[in-house]
Design a protein that fits this description.
Rossmann fold; binds BIS(adenosine)-5'-pentaphosphate
Length: 210
């Protein structure tokens, strides 16, 4: 969990590599659907472009189905889900059916000035979705993805106006669920400032990988 741009995707990818479990990002799944022009993509594009949340029932079915797939049987990292009180209920139900529990909920934090700096400097690969930053993670060749060589672009929702809306949506709809997980004794707050390596060291200190 954490504000838009705090580093959830960056840290989840590192944790995936360390823990050897799948990384399920609802943002990535939805963006891919938009890019491929699927029926889901057509339905959700307006929400993504405006910074609003996609309706709970759409996301709920998608995640419940994804968690039941074979590659998630050994464990999974959820990135960007749940994001509303209703999605917490949907996740509880999906986990109950699968007879698994959450090990922990990790809330990354950083000041708003750092969030704006990270989002405005973010560049993503238009093809494989790899994430870069103009200052802290620049590609070897400017404007080209290290992994696949395709062009880098700014995400359509990384404009000033949409960032403002995403932060507002986060504070209103998502932050309250941190309290729910705190009450359950699952919440770990992680200082998200400093380099990605420094943040990962803090994160890994809180995660039980046994
Ligand atoms: P989503 O893709 O989840 O966006 P988000 O929550 O706004 O988060 P971001 O992907 O913007 O940021 P991040 O925290 O992953 O940061 P990153 O690692 O990239 O969702 C997008 C949209 O999809 C939503 O608005 C909504 O419409 C929809 N959606 C998704 N899930 C949904 C759900 N459950 N329900 C309903 N709708 C849903 O890092 C950002 C930048 O900073 C990068 O450039 C990175 O290189 C850099 N960086 C990272 N860490 C550091 C560091 N430590 N130091 C310096 N730079 C750093």
């Amino acid at each position: 969990m954490g504000m838009p741009g705090v580093g959830k995707g960056t840290q989840a990818a590192r944790l995936r590599d360390r823990a050897g479990v799948v990384h399920l990002s609802t943002g990535d799944i939805l963006r891919e659907a938009v890019q491929r022009g699927t029926a889901l993509g057509t339905r959700v594009q307006g929400f993504l472009d405006s910074g609003k949340l996609v309706p709970d029932e759409l996301i709920g079915d998608l995640i419940a189905d994804r968690l039941g797939q074979q590659d998630a049987a050994a464990g999974f990292i959820l990135d960007g889900f749940p994001r509303t009180v209703e999605q917490v209920v949907i996740l509880d139900e999906a986990l109950r059916r699968l007879r698994v529990g959450l090990d922990g909920v990790y809330l990354l934090t950083a000041p708003k000035s750092e969030i704006v700096r990270r989002l405005s400097g973010r560049r993503v690969c238009a093809d494989c979705g790899a994430v870069y930053h103009v200052d802290s993670r620049s590609p070897r060749v400017e404007g080209k993805c290290d992994a696949c060589g395709h062009a880098l672009m700014q995400r359509p929702d990384d404009t000033e106006e949409v960032i403002r809306e995403r932060l507002e949506v986060y504070n209103r709809q998502t932050l309250p669920i941190a309290e729910k997980y705190r009450e359950r004794g699952l919440l770990h707050e992680i200082d998200g400032t400093g380099s990605p390596v420094a943040v990962f060291e803090r994160l890994i200190g809180e995660v039980n990988l046994s």
